[in-house]
Every structure is written in C-alpha cells, then in structure tokens.
Amino acid sequence: MLVSDTPRPVIRPRRLRTSPAMRRLVAETRLHPADLVLPMFVREGAAEPQPIGSMPGVVQHSLDSLRRAAAEAAEAGVGGVMLFGVPLVRDARGSAGTDPEGILNLAARAVADEVGGAISVQTDLCLDEFTDHGHCGVLDELGRVDNDATLEVYREMALAQAASGADVLGLSGMMDGQTAAVRDALDEAGFVDTAVMAYSAKYASAYYGPFRDAVESALEGDRRTYQLDPGNRREGLREALLDIAEGADAVMVKPAGSYLDVLADVAAASEVPVWAYQVSGEYAMIEAAAMHGWIDRERAVHESVVAIKRAGADTILTYWALELANRLRKGDLA
Length: 334
Ligand code: PBG
Hints:
Bound molecules: ligand PBG
Strand order of the largest sheet: 1-4-5-6-7-8-9-10
C-alpha cells in the first residue's frame, strides 16, 4: 500500500463553503437596496426618454419619465437618486445651474414632489453640465479655472437646489474650500438640514467618458488642475479629511473600482459616512463585455458592487442601483 507523506489538513476553510446556506451564513458583505443610490439624467425639453449610446440601459429622462423612474426606485427601496441636468443652453458662467427654473432645479422639485420623504433627493452641485466650455468652474481672463470665483457660483447653486427640495447636495467640482463655502451659504439662508456630500477624492479619470455623452458636455482641455492624479493615494485621504473638517456630512471616493485602496484608507479614517461612485465607464465596460458574451453580466454587476462595499463604502452610487435592488428583493442575491 502506498502511504502518502502529505499530512491531512486539520484546518479546512472550505468547510464554510460547502453549501449555499453555509456560504450565506458566513458572508462578510451584504448589499441592501438602501445602500444604493441611482444616478439619473434629465434633459431639458425632452418629451420622451432618450437613450445614451455609450451607456446601454441608461436614458436621459423627460421630467415625466424622471418622476416615474424615481417612484420606481423608491418602491424598490433604493436609498436615493442623484440628479444630473442636461440644459439646452450653456454659457460661460453656467447660469442654468443657478436659475431656479433651470432643468436640474425643476427636476429636484419634480422628484421631491413625487417621492420626497420616501427616498433621498440628491443633486449634482457642479458647473460642468452648465458651462459652454465644460469646466467645473468659471474661468479667469487667462482661461484658468478660477477657484474662488467658482465658490460664489456654488453658493448660489446650493441655495437654488436646497430651495428646490434637494436633501443632499453632491459637491463634485473639486474646488478648494467648496464644502465650507456651501455649508456657510446654506446655514446663512436657514437650510441647516440640507446635507452636503463632498466628492472628496475625485480623480481625473478616463472612466467618466460615457458621462460626457450623457450630459452632452464637450470639454476644452482637461480637469487635471482640480481633479486628483490617479497615482496619488495619500492625497485622496487628505482631501477627505479636509472636507470632514469643513463640515461634510459624507465624503466620497470616485471612481470606485480602480480606487478601492483609497476607499479603504478613507473608510478607516472617516468619522462620517463614506460613499463611492461606480462611474459611467465602469458601467459601460461591463455592459459592453456582456454584450459580446465575454462576461457573465449578472455576476459581474453584483461582484463589482460587492467589492466596493467590501472595501469600505457605506453607500454606492451605481447605474445598476434599481436592477440590484430588485434582484435583492426577489432574493436572487444572498
Ligand atoms: C461632475 C461630475 C462628473 C461625474 C459626476 N459628476 C463628470 C466629471 O467630473 O467629469 C461623472 C460620473 C460618471 O462618469 O458616471 N458634474
């Protein structure tokens, strides 16, 4: 008889993976519909939802279809909707963003009217959707993004959004001092309960490509004077700590999937909730590979979002929020 020299393992981690029930029991990370926020686009003047070429399954809503979709998200238990406006007219100062009748403010009012209280209403507070040059701020006479002049416009935008019924303002412009400036403007005007979520560690990323399609924004130049260098890890944490010190109610890391180390750093250090944004390019990559039959779509969607939660995100913005919430409710996912 052949006697093996290999000792029999005493410790067998596989024991915990033997059945679906056992795996479910020991799962360390579970998604819940309330963890998820659905980003949504609304186009001024649209009578019908318009498809977005580089984001199959995502549309630019009309105000009517936005209301219905927000109600559907609330029904599914999704934690929030993050609204982005697509204006018909853009100018150098991004006036449609501060106009109370601008498309984003109309959208916030429509959603707050439809489902306010049942789901959190969130608005993007940034100028790139509204400027003709596509930058997140206003420009000085040399064409550079003028930080402090932009803060003045952000303050005005914040008041318009809060007055429209937004519960959470998503500060995505990466200007220095934006959290303190917006908090101050809100408090001064009596909007003490309007929350500020700072896109603190927002990287200058190629993964925002499809988003530019979605908001029909053409950018002159790039955003590297205000968004972070993809190689900088420590700086992501620094930005988050600054926003917390300035009074942010939540901080965000964006994109999510390629920045899980930054997310873990921020989650370890933060005393406020930490959010992550699974951005348009992350969505498009999985959808495109799945269309070719190169990847199992449902599994990849779930895995990509679970990984973001595992790394430390409390809340995740994802274009799959509604789909995942529905799958979770049906019990398709453990
Ligand atoms: C700025 C903003 C952007 C995104 C969210 N807020 C664009 C940018 O900074 O270039 C991108 C989100 C995505 O790609 O899904 N308003």
